[in-house]
Design goal:
about 180 residues, mainly alpha, 2 strands, Integral membrane protein, about 55% helix, transmembrane helix
Length: about 180
């Protein structure tokens, strides 16, 4: 076992991709991870670096929508001359009364800004939590696969898999923000 490399220790990726026929799995000039703790450390760092900004941006978007909600339009359907705006399209449909603004009770102890900050903090905490848990699982799988195949684990592998984990996480973060808001 060698000593632990410093983060990020990325090197020229062409060493691993180009002209690899009949060569050793450890290329000269490459940096490899031998310890399980190093694989976890690199995976956590890369996942935090790549996914936290995405979560924070989504949290900022959600908190701005909480602090400054869009104005409610009274007439969402334009009224045509000759037809009243509450005229039903079908005779079986009964027009519904829109909810009045006075039906909600004001909360004197908490403001919109407080809820916006809570939303942002929730996104930040979930970002760090998902990075730590996801990286633990990902590092465990990477170490198992590379040890089973007796391969050398390059420092590029945690970066690539953290990028994949972030992109998969993005597929779930944006629609949820839109649905909630």
């Amino acid at each position: 076992m060698s000593q632990s490399p410093k983060f990020p220790s990325l090197y020229d990726i062409s060493l691993e991709v180009l002209r690899v026929d009949h060569r050793d799995s450890r290329q000269y000039g490459g940096v490899y991870l031998d310890k399980h703790s190093d694989v976890y450390r690199f995976t956590v760092y890369w996942t935090l670096i790549l996914s936290t900004p995405c979560f924070i941006l989504a949290g900022i978007y959600a908190s701005f929508n909480m602090a400054f909600p869009p104005s409610q339009r009274r007439d969402s359907i334009p009224s045509y001359k000759g037809f009243p705006s509450d005229y039903p399209v079908s005779p079986t449909l009964v027009p519904l009364n829109p909810p009045t603004l006075s039906s909600t009770r004001p909360n004197p102890r908490r403001s919109r800004f407080t809820f916006a900050v809570l939303v942002l903090l929730t996104y930040a905490v979930l970002s760090v939590g998902s990075a730590v848990v996801g990286s633990a699982v990902l590092a465990w799988v990477l170490v198992g696969l590379f040890e089973a195949g007796k391969y050398s684990l390059s420092t590029w592998i945690p970066f690539i898999w953290a990028l994949i984990q972030t992109l998969v996480g993005l597929t779930g973060i944006w629609p949820a923000v839109i649905d909630i808001i």
